[in-house]
Design a protein that fits this description.
- This protein is α/β, with parallel strands linked by helices and 667 residues long.
- The protein is built from 24 helices and 21 strands.
- It has a seven-stranded mixed β-sheet with strand order 10-9-11-12-14-13-19, with helices on both faces.
- The longest helix has 26 residues.
- It is elongated, with a radius of gyration of 28 Å.
- It starts with 10 loop residues before the first helix and ends in a 5-residue tail after the last helix.
- The mean pLDDT is 94.
Length: 667
């Protein structure tokens, strides 16, 4: 039996290694030419000089293994088996490209080869790769995830967050750092206090090795050792491939930062020429075989160019395709309460929803800071650790981007993670993963991949927690295509939205207002799933529409009661779903009442209330008898003193004043 840790240097294999490197080198040479002809646009980052890394690593992997790449991924893609035709068509932006023309040069995706794409955010793929491995580990899958990134990513926080999580949870991730000595135009020695990258990885307790990245057999051998060890006992491994790019950072780069003599010296170590020379010197290949391989590669490139030139463009009519799933699966059976009621709180309703989901589906798990014994900052998950164990109630380090990205990766391979972020302000640390991966990956991959993750977070002020814990930023997230954004305000929604959200094919964000956790009331004992498509009319009325959501719902209902005492019947609409907005319910209400006030705890400028007002003007202007009123947070960071905090957040008196103004003082 052959040793899985050794390269198999038989005649067929050495030809494959040489062919693989030649395909990358000559393909990219043609791409550079096509770029100057403006056939390929945008940023073009060439892999010239680093071919031994991609080919050596891929030679040691199985088809079932997963690949996460970076923006210089053409070499990885070709070495993994993505066809030249589909790769080049993608770089042209044609519909036949491997990502349907949606990703371009920096975002090659291919489901068939388990190629999870290039990531144009430096370091952005590291948490994703960690999550893919987490999902596989939790499902008992025998797979390895390989994550490629450059030396520049080592300075990013996501590098350290991913290293720590992978080592902490013993995940089968092979991290491959392609150290080409320059992050764009900045030399490693000028940007890093410690230039031994392999040593940094070793500090996390993982096996780490520095390898000559200009030697394809050395790269294959190192990868085989790492992969074999991970298959025996899952744990992360790290390879620092010490390599060099012969071309500039990108085709835009004037390359003023390095000496031409340095490039000439590195070219003497050209991985292709070194390998060819070694093969010829040892009589392992003949010159005519090399010539035949080169001719074969040139023919493939010519065919790929011809195919890309002739390929169709995606119709403009398909512009919005693959932003979200074209079809949503049937929602879970909605609750049909028996009528038996129990006294509960919003906090207990959310906890019951999490517990119910975990009992129903073994793929559901909760992940976040202090969600275990502590129960999370607001004690929502208290007691669940004892019920489900550490694997499914997973405490994380303080690394929002890392564990959110890990949740996204786990969701992409079939798990159903619920990620809890302590407070909406902290979610900004994970915004890269939410915006640039979860919300975009379906579109960038041409519909091949999706991230059906559920992310919960506390939002809003009122608890004297000052500016960094108290803002209402849900309107920011409602701005992002590709997300579904929910704001449960009632006990029924707190209990029922989660199970429905876990069935959604796209990422769902759930915002829980901090002032609601202690809200108490009656809830059906057998309460269950609720729909997450429509707004709800919480109080019907004929004189004015008060539109709100989340923590402001009960203030708005209180204002409506006060107006009723004056003979004014206000209709109160609970938006519930902030993206996509339920225009139909909003416009129908406006048509009935002809006056509207929007209550929004976000800041007025660029707020969700501004979007709703604009839609009413576009769709319901002729129904209005008065301008749309708005009650929003004051345009200040939320202050600490109670009287100032109250003044900064919409209150009942503010809602009443805005409603009376919209009514023009009329009863």
């Amino acid at each position: 039996m052959s040793d899985p840790t050794k390269p198999k240097l038989d005649h067929a294999h050495i030809r494959d290694l040489l062919r693989g490197m030649l395909r990358i080198r000559r393909f990219e040479g043609k791409c550079a030419e096509l770029y100057t002809q403006e056939k390929i646009r945008g940023f073009l980052h060439l892999y010239d000089g680093e071919e031994a890394v991609a080919v050596g690593v891929m030679a040691a992997l199985e088809p079932r293994d997963r690949i996460v790449s970076t923006y210089r991924e053409h070499g990885h893609a070709l070495a993994r088996g993505i066809s030249m035709e589909s790769a080049l068509a993608e770089m042209y932006g044609k519909a036949t490209g491997c990502s349907g023309g949606r990703g371009g040069s920096m975002h090659l995706f291919d489901l068939e080869t388990n190629f999870y794409g290039g990531n144009a955010i430096v370091g952005g793929g590291l948490p994703l790769a960690t999550g893919l491995a987490l999902g596989d580990a939790m499902q008992g899958e025998d797979r390895v995830t390989v994550c490629f990134f450059g030396d520049g990513a080592v300075a990013e926080g996501e590098f350290h967050e991913a290293m720590n999580l992978a080592a902490l949870w013993k995940l089968p991730v092979l991290f491959v750092c392609e150290n080409n000595l320059y992050a764009m135009g900045t030399a490693l020695k000028r940007a890093q206090a410690e230039t031994d990258i392999a040593m940094r990885a070793a500090s996390y307790g993982m096996v780490s090795e520095a390898v000559d990245g200009m030697d394809v057999t050395a790269m294959e051998a190192a990868t085989r050792r790492a992969v074999s060890a991970m298959r025996e006992a899952p744990h992360p491994q790290f390879i620092e491939a010490r390599t060099y790019r012969f071309r500039a950072h990108s085709m835009f780069d004037p390359e003023l930062y390095r000496d031409k003599a340095e490039v000439r010296e590195w070219r003497k170590r050209d991985p292709i020429e070194r390998f060819k020379g070694w093969l010829l010197e040892n009589a392992l290949i003949h010159e005519d075989e090399i010539a035949a391989i080169e001719a074969e590669v040139d023919a493939q490139i010519a065919n790929a160019v011809a195919a890309a030139e002739q390929a169709p463009w995606e119709p403009v009519e398909d512009l919005e395709r693959d932003v979200v799933a074209a079809e949503r699966p049937a929602p879970p059976a909605l609750a049909k309460p028996s009528g038996q009621m129990v006294q509960t709180t919003y906090r207990e309703a959310v906890r019951a929803a999490i517990m119910d989901a975990m009992l129903r589906d073994e793929r559901v798990f909760l992940m976040g800071e202090d969600v275990g014994a502590y129960g999370g900052t607001y004690a929502v998950s208290k007691g669940l650790l004892a019920e489900f164990g550490e694997d499914r109630i997973r405490d994380t380090p303080l690394s929002e981007s890392g564990f959110t990205g890990a949740g996204i990766g786990a969701a992409m391979v079939g798990m159903k993670p619920i990620v809890e972020i302590m407070t909406v302000n902290f979610s900004l640390l994970a915004l890269d993963q939410i915006l640039n991966t979860a919300a975009t990956i379906r579109h960038m991959s041409g519909g091949q991949f999706a991230a059906p993750i559920v992310i919960r977070m506390a939002t809003g002020g009122g608890r004297q927690l000052a500016a960094q814990h108290s803002h209402s930023l849900e309107g920011w997230y409602a701005h992002i295509p590709g997300l579904r954004v929910l704001a449960p305000a009632t006990l029924e929604d707190a209990r029922g939205m989660l199970w429905t959200a876990l069935h959604e094919p796209d990422p769902v964000l759930i915002f829980e207002n901090v002032m609601l956790y202690n809200h108490a009331g009656d809830l059906a004992a057998d309460a269950g799933a609720v729909e997450v498509d429509r707004a709800a009319i919480r109080r019907p009325g004929r004189d004015i529409s008060l539109i709100t959501y989340g923590g402001s719902l009960y203030k708005t209902l209180e204002a409506a009661e006060a107006l009723a005492a004056e003979g004014i019947e206000a209709e109160v609409i609970d938006l519930r779903v902030l993206r996509p907005l339920d225009d139909a319910t909003i416009m129908a209400s406006v048509a009935r009442t002809r006056r509207t006030v929007v209550v929004d705890e976000g800041w007025r400028s660029g707020s969700l209330s501004a979007e709703i007002s604009a839609r009413i003007m576009e769709q319901g202007f002729w129904h209005l008898d008065a301008p749309v009123g708005r009650v929003c947070a004051a345009e200040v960071p939320i202050p600490y003193p109670k009287h100032l905090e109250d003044a900064a957040i919409p209150q009942v008196a503010d809602i009443l004043a805005a409603a009376r103004a919209a009514l023009g003082g009329q009863p």
